[in-house]
Amino acid sequence: MRYILPMPVHSLMLLAVWLLLNGFSVGQLVLGLILAWLIPVITWPYTDHQSRAGKPLKIAAYVARLLRDIVVSNVDVALKVLGSNRSLNPGFICYPLALQGDFPLTVLASTISLTPGTVSVDFSEDRKWLYVHALHITTEQEMIAEIRQRYEQPLQEIFS
Amino acid sequence: MTDIVNILAVICLLTGGFFLFVGSVGLAKLPDFYTRLHAPTKATTLGVGAVLLGSMLLTTMRDGGISIHELVISLFLFITAPVSAHMMAKAALHKKVTALKNTHKRELMKRIAQQKTPE
Amino acid sequence: MTTASLLDAAILVTSAMVLIALLMNVWRMLKGPSVTDRILALDTLYINSIALIILLGLYNGSPLYFEGALLIAMLGFVSTAALSKYLLRGDIIE
User: Membrane spanning segments where (chain A) (predicted)?
Assistant: First the structure.
């Protein structure tokens, strides 16, 4: 399996993107299949294989929640931008991480950047803290609890 | 049928235009760099997403068949927007760009730039 | 009023909104005050221009503009990343 089809999910994604870009025809399908097989075989030795995502249902639920939160956060940010900027209470938050591994952390940081009024700024060196900048802080504890409950725990289940 | 698609596309386009507009208003109006970072990274991704959705509806109707290759651009933007926001925030901290006076935990900025733990 | 003319009007109105957005980005890019502000303005500028190109494609009814938009999306991201990296390290390729 390792030598024939090392990264099946990647292959599927490559094929899907290839067909999206070039339109569907038999020739493109064949070329896409060849590329979707060849590229993972070549790049296999250069990737790290620490974390694997499982549980497709949970991933779908996570993506759905993420899309909903993106819309909500955009309306939220739009109202704050158009309102008076003097009442804003921006600040940095130190978020203690429970999640481990490069890929899960990247997903978490990207999620935080895309959702309500927060942008992830940096990790601490030991990967135990994530620094987040928030556009408007109500209380720090509340925001940490919200991120933990809404995003980090589902991600922990997906990557466990 | 055409009418329904047209009206849906109109709604998508206007929503997208509105969010792009708000993102740029935020960029021009908000008081410091770190707050400015929020408006473009969020509002513009949804704005472009909505415009692309409108375009997808229209081209699907116009050419027949399903035209979904606009999805590639939206997907690409949704993946890259947080990454570029993260890199710009890092660069700003490194360059010691000043934050607003009332920023919560402003004193931590130096430690964050050096990737140290908060204590 | 038919929905087709409504659609044309909507495309024009959206283009006008994006145009004003582009002008505000340029203003921020010229004003600064810091280098990172200018990079952020450039980043927003390219995202807005993607929307404008897609709108132009819709207005002309041509699918060719899509390729241009995709190219701008890719190069825009790479340039933002490269500029930030340059500020961080003083070097792009290590």
Answer: 12-39
